[in-house]
Design a protein that fits this description.
Structural class: alpha+beta
Subcellular location: Cell envelope
Shape: elongated
Protein name: YknX-like beta-barrel domain-containing protein
Organism: Prosthecobacter algae
Keywords: Coiled coil
Number of strands: 22
Pfam families: Beta-barrel_YknX
Strand order of the largest sheet: 2-12-15-14-13-16
Length: 607
């Protein structure tokens, strides 16, 4: 009896369960529409924002960096957060003291080398001046020698004839032309010395006006000058040669006159002797005198001929050769002076550069020694390290007493509190919306009830490499938002949220983002049609973190499902994203009965 009763209860339970299952399947669609919260399609103003979290930073920072070229230990350090006042700046308050013992040793060692360099520099400078003075003396002596040679030639031939002969020989014909020649030599030598290069032969021949004179002076005499024609008709000249010529000619004329007188006397004596009017001895005396006078005449004629043919030409050749040699010596002296001056200038420039290098090194060491005491130069709050560096970089470079700081490492930072901004990293999916100059709203975590205004001032062109180093798939673009106005309570390092106002859509239809489903790049939503949820294809536009623009597919006032019953959610969509740029798994908890319709909102932000 007990077994029969138990079987009846089991069969009865199974029957009741079957009836309940059939009734549930028959009324599933009604329950589906009743349990899912819905939202009425709205139309109005939709604000598109980009929301990013960031860190408050000063737009301008005064940084105290280590100017010591070697790693240096911190001996003393002012506490972080200390407020540097104007009085501290006037008194030159020491904020950081670095170890200077190594620098003092280096300065002492360098002082010996520096003094040696100074002595070498002074010696080279004086040597250059001495060489310049010696060069001037040598050139002056050579000029005087050449002028004296020219004067000797003019003295011998006279000014007019000497100029004629020198012009024919291609030499400076007078003192004015010689001075011009000497000045050209010196100026060209000085120009080459300053330029440090030699002018090529072709360019020199074209540009040098005294090149023909140089060729005539420096080359050997390929054609000998016949000076005898220059003596013809020069009896009235004012040179020694003309005077000698007149003397010889006068002597010859005198001898000829004496010869004529002696001849007449001999002839007369011969006539008288034939008549025995004079003695034979007297006749012989007259004949001997005639012979003497005849020989004297021949001698005078020979001397005149020799002077014209040999002595004159020889003396002219010697004087011209002496003049040419003096000019050649002047050239050699100028060139030798240029070489000596170039060597002296090279020694001076080398010593000068070495002195300048050692002086710069000395000044740099003195500057580093002075930089071991970092004094207050600007009022403000003191912060350790570089405020603009990443957190990992600031952690790796700890600033404390006893730690070492490297060259150009930021030890202290004094931010300018009057101009503040927010540093944010914009995700690559949102960066195309952000533009420089767009307005922004800033909320600081320390003051949640205050909303500040700002502007997008900077936006990186390339993504931040430091963020992609650890997460290669994450691409963010650093941006700077300048906060308008001055806020004394704001401090660098505070966390803030920035809402960048990207666009303002007017009179558009929109629905919550969680009501949109994406499948194969197509957007769908579920519309409540007479208590049943019908899937409908829609065309969407811009969106923020709460609402999305619907361009086609829905009508104003229609109810769209905010979440789907579990049996209607496709298995392959349960864990996947709903739409590019939309939050994943757009399903919100079901609302209590009586609250199926959500109230619309017209402004929201994108996270």
């Amino acid at each position: 009896m007990k077994k029969a009763k138990s079987k009846i209860w089991i069969y009865g339970g199974v029957a009741v369960a079957g009836i309940a299952a059939v009734s549930f399947l028959m009324s599933g669609s009604d329950r589906q529409a009743e349990d899912v919260p819905t939202f009425s399609v709205q139309k109005g103003r939709l604000q598109i924002n980009v929301l990013q979290g960031g860190e408050i930073r000063a737009l301008q920072n005064f940084e105290l960096k280590s100017e010591i070229e070697t790693p240096t230990k911190i001996l003393s350090l002012i506490p972080e957060g200390y407020l540097v006042t104007e009085e501290d700046v006037k008194e030159g308050k020491v904020l950081v003291e670095l170890d200077n013992s190594d620098l003092k040793t280096r300065i002492q060692d360098h002082e010996i080398q520096f003094q040696t360099t100074v002595a070498s520099y002074i010696d080279a400078d004086e040597g250059r001046e001495i060489q310049r003075s010696e060069n001037q003396s040598l050139v002056r002596d050579m000029k005087e020698t050449a002028i004296f040679a020219l004067m000797d030639f003019e003295k011998y031939l006279g000014r007019e004839l000497s100029m004629k002969i020198l012009a024919a020989a291609g030499l400076p014909k007078d003192a004015a032309e010689f001075d011009k020649f000497a000045d050209q030599l010196e100026s060209q030598a000085n120009a080459q010395l300053e330029a440090g290069t030699n002018v090529s032969a072709v360019v020199e021949a074209k540009k040098d006006p005294i090149r023909p004179l140089k060729n005539a002076i420096g080359s050997a005499e390929s054609e000998r000058i016949d000076f005898s024609p220059f003596l013809e008709g020069q009896n009235s000249g004012d040179g020694e040669a003309q005077q000698k010529l007149r003397q010889l000619e006068d002597e010859l004329l005198l001898r000829k006159s004496e010869l004529a007188v002696a001849k007449q006397k001999v002839e007369a004596s011969q006539r008288l002797a034939s008549r025995d009017f004079i003695s034979k001895t007297q006749l012989e005396n007259d004949q001997v005198n005639f012979e003497k006078v005849s020989l004297a005449g021949k001698t005078a004629s020979t001397e005149l001929a020799l002077f014209k043919k040999y002595a004159f030409s020889k003396m002219c050749a010697q004087l011209v050769s002496g003049y040419r040699e003096s000019l050649t010596k002047l050239q050699r002296t100028v060139r030798a002076n240029r070489s000596k001056m170039a060597q002296a200038e090279t020694r001076f420039q080398t010593a000068k550069r070495r002195y300048e290098m050692e002086l710069a090194k000395k000044e740099d060491l003195d500057r580093q020694l002075k930089a071991c005491m970092m004094r207050a130069v600007q009022p403000g709050l003191v912060a350790y390290g570089d405020l603009n560096a990443s957190a990992s970089a600031r952690y790796s470079e700890s600033i404390e007493e006893g730690s070492n700081v490297r060259f150009r490492q930021t030890v202290l930072t004094i931010p300018n509190m009057s101009q503040m901004g927010v540093h944010v990293n914009v995700h690559e999916s949102q960066v195309k919306k952000v533009r420089i100059g767009q307005p922004a709203l800033i909320k600081v975590d320390a003051e949640p009830g205050i909303v500040l205004e700002g502007r997008v001032a900077e936006l990186a062109v390339l993504p931040d490499s430091s963020s992609s180093r650890y997460t290669p798939n994450l691409k963010v673009y650093p941006a700077s938002i300048h906060i308008l106005g001055t806020h004394p309570w704001m401090k660098p390092g505070m966390n803030a949220k920035v809402e960048i106002l990207v666009d303002q859509l007017a009179d558009v239809m929109f629905v919550p983002v969680q009501s949109i489903e994406v499948e194969n790049d197509h957007h769908y939503c579920y519309v409540n049609e007479s208590g049943n949820l019908a899937r409908r294809s829609v065309e969407t536009g811009l969106f923020n973190d709460e609402f999305i623009e619907v361009r086609t597919g829905l009508q104003l006032g229609e109810l769209v499902a905010l979440s789907l019953p579990k049996k209607l959610v496709p298995e392959n969509k349960a864990d996947g994203p709903t739409a590019p740029g939309l939050p994943e798994n757009p399903v919100t908890p079901a609302k209590p009965k009586g609250q199926g319709k959500a109230k619309p909102k017209d402004v929201a932000t994108v996270k």
